[in-house]
Design a protein that fits this description.
Elements: H1 10-29, H2 46-56, H3 63-77, H4 84-100, H5 103-128, H6 133-214, H7 218-247, H8 264-275, E1 280-286, H9 297-317, E2 321-330, E3 333-341, H10 355-366, E4 370-376, E5 379-387, H11 390-394
Parallel strand pairs: 1-2
Antiparallel strand pairs: 2-3, 3-5, 4-5
Helix pairs in contact: 1-2, 1-4, 2-3, 2-4, 3-4, 4-5, 4-6, 5-6, 6-7, 6-9, 6-10, 8-9, 9-10
Length: about 400
């Protein structure tokens, strides 16, 4: 297996080159650091200096090896005439081992160099028995413990900065996710509102325009055109109001009246005028106890929209008969039920997409309620149970 080519970091190459050149300059000038001038030839001091220069090239990638071999090299340098560049390169290897090495080495090296410094100081004092022996411990600490401690401080600052950067990225990511979720939720809410406000009018227009085209009677056509005009004007007005709200979002707006259950009679009257041509009549059965606590605004709006959409579906699909709207409140719950005559319809029918049932279910589930819709023999029933207490809604 072929090993990848070794490419030292450019900064490491620069450090190694400067250190070796400086060491050669000191050696050529005869500036030595030890007194062993007669033990070995002066050129021998260049050997540990060269070894340390090579180790500088791997100070980031092979930190353990660099520190081990560098320690042997700096000890060997002390039995020669010595070179200050060798000592400086060793201190840089210790620093790099803590900064770039494995976390275990970064934790252990400052402790081990501190213990070595204390041990060398005690041994020097015990051996030489002079106050000057303390200087040996001080130099040992400067060469080994000082770089290790500095490297630990730098590494801690880098790790703290990296952790802060990651937290900032995660916060930005969460904020972006929240923003997208808010956009999706707002779009869904706008889609429900648009469907509930306009679908009723468009359905009436579709039914009566179909009747006007299929029945060749002037009176019937005129009546259908009147209903079409009325619903188109109301639908256009509601569309303009919704567009105005969207354009003025974030600006100061006048309070807009939220539909409530008090408007059910007017809603059924409008449905009756639209559905009379299809043989439909509408009955409201309000079983709520008088004088009760007011319902939360979200519940009022949801219940009203559910009844509105159910009446729209009845105008589209119900066979001639009676559409019954029942509203009850008991045990902290508001129950809305709409029963429509169900069967094969022969007259004009508006197309449906199923979005109305989805919207009613979403409104109910957002408030923690229950929703069901389906055919029961000759009756199509829509039933929604909503929480009628403020605590339940807020939860």
């Amino acid at each position: 297996m072929r090993l990848p080519p070794f490419r030292p970091h450019p900064h490491d190459v620069l450090i190694a080159a400067i250190s070796v050149v400086a060491g050669l300059a000191l050696w050529s000038l005869g500036l030595y650091t030890t007194g062993f001038r007669d033990l070995l030839p002066a050129w021998v001091a260049l050997v540990p200096m060269a070894v340390l220069g090579v180790l500088e090239l791997v100070r980031r990638t092979a930190t353990r090896t660099a520190v081990f071999v560098g320690t042997l090299a700096v000890i060997a340098d002390q039995i020669t005439v010595g070179n200050l560049a060798s000592v400086f390169m060793f201190t840089d290897l210790v620093y790099a081992a803590v900064v770039y090495g494995h976390p275990a080495m970064a934790r252990r090296l400052p402790v081990s160099t501190g213990l070595v410094t204390v041990a060398v100081t005690l041994l020097a004092v015990a051996w030489l028995r002079t106050p000057d022996a303390i200087l040996i411990g001080v130099v040992t600490g400067i060469v080994s413990f000082g770089p290790a401690l500095t490297g630990a401080s730098v590494r801690n600052h880098r790790e703290a900065a990296e952790a802060a950067r990651l937290r900032a990225e995660q916060t930005a990511l969460l904020a972006e996710m929240d923003r997208k979720a808010a956009i999706v939720a707002e779009r869904a809410r706008m889609a429900r509102e648009l469907h509930d406000m306009v679908a009723n009018h468009l359905s009436a227009i579709a039914i009566h325009s179909t009747a006007a085209l299929s029945i060749d009677e002037p009176g019937t056509s005129r009546e259908a055109l009147g209903v079409i005009r009325e619903n188109s004007v109301q639908g256009l007005s509601e569309m303009r109001r919704l567009i105005g709200l969207l354009r003025e979002a974030g600006a100061e707006q006048e309070p807009v009246a939220v539909p409530s259950l008090d408007g059910l009679e007017a809603l059924l009257a409008q449905a009756a005028s639209t559905g009379s041509a299809s043989g439909l009549d509408f009955v409201l059965e309000d079983g709520r106890p008088p004088g009760g606590n007011p319902l939360p605004a979200p519940v009022e709006l949801a219940a009203y929209r559910i009844v509105q959409e159910s009446l729209t579906n009845a105008l589209k699909h119900a066979v001639p008969g009676t559409v019954r709207v029942r509203v009850d409140r008991s045990d902290g719950l508001l129950t809305v039920r709409v029963d429509s005559p169900y069967g094969d319809r022969t007259g004009p029918r508006a197309p449906g997409s199923g979005a109305g049932l989805v919207g009613m279910r979403e409104r109910t589930e957002l408030l923690g309620g229950e929703f069901e819709a389906g055919g029961r023999g000759p009756v199509w029933r829509v039933r929604a149970v909503l929480p009628a207490e403020e605590k339940a809604v807020e939860a």
